[in-house]
């Protein structure tokens, strides 16, 4: 089953979001227009706006007001990806050339800055100070997460706790904010907002662990980028943390972290990690977060939105690529 | 307010701005964030002229300065090959400072100012990208772009707090300073932010010098004849303008 089928009843509202995204990135600068459209056309699952919309269903839902949250959340995600591609020196994303590859780093910086600015401008339609505190805190934490990721690069001497703290900031917090802000914008009650916020956090954690597993277990074609690229970038993820000291893995891992690994040894390293129990153990942690997410959502009244959130959480945590 | 007190205010704000964005890893790899004291001076013009200035103005002035610090951080990202640790963190530094400006204003419930400033930042990036665009812009359009890039968020801040009368002086002073610095560096064969990317400026250096002289004359005349500015502030502005005299810049670079 495809992820999009799980929220097919949101299709018309997601079309509104897609149109609004195109309007939001419209620029008087020919260059920024081109770069932003390049990003929009690359598509994506739009999973964060989906979380915003579904969470908003627990309050007074109106697409006209909720789009003011869904659009900026996606813009922030897009902007951070453009800047990430500069950081990672990435040539492709989702099988397409990155902005930095098609133009240069500076244009990518301007594009990201433009999208961040548009996102903030857009969400000011929501006159709720707390919502802005949530989003601004999220943006700051996202950066801190990335800063820590760079600090921790190639550092084998790190704990599972370090990893979890890092992915919380890197991924979980934006999904958590998507759910929380959707609920806030539709004026859901405080208890519901709290459950949705926590749900988003747990789903985000589970999702990122799976993403890190897939970096090792998927093929280049499935990922739209070379398999193992996170590892080659020096990012030590959960499956690797569990098995880093194994005899068959350690020497190859050191080669990879030194940036001097041959293609043959890279494939060997990936194969050894795949064979190890690192993948299974990481999946167990992901499942634990999934359980916690489902427990949060259980507390909410029955509705089709609840069902969709449950299904999406299950899908994201069980996906194969 | 005498000159020593004005300097104290600028220094106090600078310290406060740096405190807001203190982050050990960033500082270790990217150095102390860029806080342009001259820009800060012009942001604080109403305060330095003795206008009523409360906590909200203070927070917003700091937030506006953080915007420029964020943009300056991103201007330091190399066009090609930014894969060193310092460069990677330079990217994140800009995003972090930018998030902090938003956070600061959100905590102060300044949603309408956030709206204006974010629209301003979008506009600044649009105008910055003109220098990379294949589309051709006229000399006048590029000068306007530079002025907007250098001063738009300050203009919005001053307008927001109804300090309209300070806008013209601030905008002209910011433009003047950057053009003089750019020209002086360019003459010394150093890489500059605007001129190096613009054939129009390179081919019309005489027009650029005339433009600088025109802005300087107008600014000096306006400051001298201003009924709004108090005498010590007038002197401080005129000293800054002469300290950045084109002749001096060209001589010293």
UniProtKB/TrEMBL annotation, chain A:
Q: Name its GO BP terms in alphabetical order.
A: isoprenoid biosynthetic process
Entry annotated with the keyword Ion transport = no
Q: Which PROSITE patterns match?
A: POLYPRENYL_SYNTHASE_1, POLYPRENYL_SYNTHASE_2
The answer to whether UniProt assigns keyword Metal-binding to this entry is yes
- Enzymatic reactions: 4 isopentenyl diphosphate + (2E,6E)-farnesyl diphosphate = all-trans-heptaprenyl diphosphate + 4 diphosphate
Q: Which UniProt keywords apply?
A: Magnesium, Metal-binding, Transferase
Q: What is its EC number?
A: 2.5.1.30
Q: Which domain of life is it from?
A: Bacteria
The function of this protein is:
Supplies heptaprenyl diphosphate, the precursor for the side chain of the isoprenoid quinone menaquinone-7 (MQ-7).
Subunit-level organization:
Heterodimer of component I and II.
PANTHER family from the entry? Answer: ALL TRANS-POLYPRENYL-DIPHOSPHATE SYNTHASE PDSS1, GERANYLGERANYL PYROPHOSPHATE SYNTHASE
Family annotation (NCBIfam families)? GerC3_HepT
Q: What is this protein called?
A: Heptaprenyl diphosphate synthase component 2
Native source organism of the sequence? Psychrobacillus vulpis
From TrEMBL, chain B:
Q: Pfam families, alphabetically? A: HEPPP_synt_1
Protein known as: Heptaprenyl diphosphate synthase
Do you know which InterPro entries this protein is assigned to?
HEPPP_synth_su1 (IPR009920)
What's an example Gene Ontology biological process for this entry?
menaquinone biosynthetic process
Q: Which Gene3D superfamilies match?
A: 1.20.120.1450
Q: Which domain of life is it from?
A: Bacteria
């Amino acid at each position: 089953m495809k992820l999009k089928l799980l929220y097919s009843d949101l299709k018309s509202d997601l079309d509104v979001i897609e149109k609004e995204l195109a309007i939001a990135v419209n620029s008087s600068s020919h260059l920024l227009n081109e770069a932003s459209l390049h990003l929009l056309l690359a598509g994506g699952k739009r999973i964060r706006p989906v979380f915003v919309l579904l969470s908003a269903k627990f309050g007074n839902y109106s697409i006209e007001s909720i789009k003011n949250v869904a659009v900026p959340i996606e813009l922030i995600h897009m902007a951070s990806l453009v800047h990430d591609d500069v950081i990672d020196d990435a040539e492709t994303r989702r099988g397409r050339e990155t902005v930095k590859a098609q133009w240069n780093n500076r244009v990518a910086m301007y594009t990201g800055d433009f999208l961040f600015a548009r996102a903030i401008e857009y969400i000011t339609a929501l006159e709720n100070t707390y919502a802005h505190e949530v989003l601004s805190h999220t943006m700051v934490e996202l950066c801190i997460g990335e800063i820590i990721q760079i600090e921790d690069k190639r550092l084998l001497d790190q704990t599972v706790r370090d990893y979890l703290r890092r992915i919380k900031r890197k991924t979980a917090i934006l999904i958590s904010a998507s759910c929380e802000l959707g609920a806030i914008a539709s004026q859901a009650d405080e208890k519901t907002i709290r459950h949705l916020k926590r749900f988003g956090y747990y789903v985000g954690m589970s999702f990122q662990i799976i993403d890190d597993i897939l970096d090792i277990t998927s093929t280049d074609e499935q990922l739209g980028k070379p398999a193992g690229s996170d590892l080659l970038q020096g990012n030590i993820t959960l499956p690797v943390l569990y098995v880093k000291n194994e005899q068959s893995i350690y020497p190859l891992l050191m080669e990879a972290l030194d940036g001097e690994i041959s293609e043959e040894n890279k494939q060997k390293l990936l194969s050894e990690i795949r064979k190890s129990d690192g993948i299974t153990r990481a999946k167990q942690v992901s499942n634990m977060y999934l359980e916690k997410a489902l427990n949060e959502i259980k507390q909410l009244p029955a509705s089709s939105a609840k069902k969709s959130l449950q299904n999406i959480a299950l899908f994201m945590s069980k996906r194969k690529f | 307010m005498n000159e020593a007190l004005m300097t104290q205010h600028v220094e106090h704000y600078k310290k406060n701005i740096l405190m807001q964005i203190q982050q050990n890893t960033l500082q270790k790899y990217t150095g102390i964030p860029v806080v342009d004291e001259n820009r800060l001076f012009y942001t604080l013009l109403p305060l330095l002229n003795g206008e009523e200035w409360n906590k909200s103005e203070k927070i917003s002035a700091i937030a506006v300065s953080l915007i420029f610090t964020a943009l300056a951080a991103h201007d330091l990202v190399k066009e090609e090959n930014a894969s060193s640790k310092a460069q990677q963190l330079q990217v994140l530094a800009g995003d972090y400072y930018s998030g902090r400006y938003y956070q600061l204003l959100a905590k102060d419930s300044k949603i309408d100012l956030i709206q204006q400033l974010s629209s301003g930042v979008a506009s600044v990036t649009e105008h910055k990208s003109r220098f990379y665009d294949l589309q051709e812009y006229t000399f006048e359009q590029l000068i306007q772009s530079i002025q907007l890039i250098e001063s738009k968020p300050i203009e919005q801040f001053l307008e927001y707090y109804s300090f309209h009368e300070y806008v013209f002086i601030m905008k002209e002073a910011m433009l003047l300073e950057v053009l003089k610095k750019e020209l002086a560096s360019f003459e010394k064969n150093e890489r500059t932010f605007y001129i190096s990317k613009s054939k129009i400026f390179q081919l019309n250096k005489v027009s650029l010098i005339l433009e600088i002289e025109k802005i300087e004359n107008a600014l000096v005349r306006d400051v001298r004849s201003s009924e709004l500015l108090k005498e010590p502030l007038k002197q401080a502005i005129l000293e800054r303008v002469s300290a950045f005299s084109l002749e001096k810049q060209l001589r010293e670079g």
